[in-house]
User: Fold this.
Amino acid sequence: MDVLWAPWREKYIAQCGLKKDGCVFCHILKANQDAKHFIFMRSAHSFAVLNIYPFSGGHSLVIPNRHVGDISDLTILERADIMDLLVRVKALMDEAYQPEAFNVGMNLGSAAGAGIPEHLHIHVVPRWQGDVNFMPAIFGTKVIPVSLAKVYKRLKDALKSGHRKVRK
Assistant:
């Protein structure tokens, strides 16, 4: 039998049986500990955070500050703000990682695959040729070659560099 060691998953497994009170997105937003929770950008009505269970390195979420579950519940200002932040996150990813493409989208409702259907969020997934290999298809295992801490640092460094496409 082959073994793939993943000690970083221990924390997740230990927490699986614990019931969380409230919304995880609202919790990390209110905690005001951006580095701890991997929040790398904020705007007036939304924020961007690394997905801690990424599809690929750099997988991020753009989330409205207000707890809403559907795009139709957003105000006009919130819709404009979240779209502007989405554009800024993509520009930041372009600068920091130079991906060849992106998947951008929302899963609205549990049946559509939303893991947290009660709080709207947009996935921003940088993609490269060959980033999906035989591991998921044959072994049901994803290989993410970069840590969240390293991605977070690289994004924050790129943000500090003041690249014109990332700024408001």
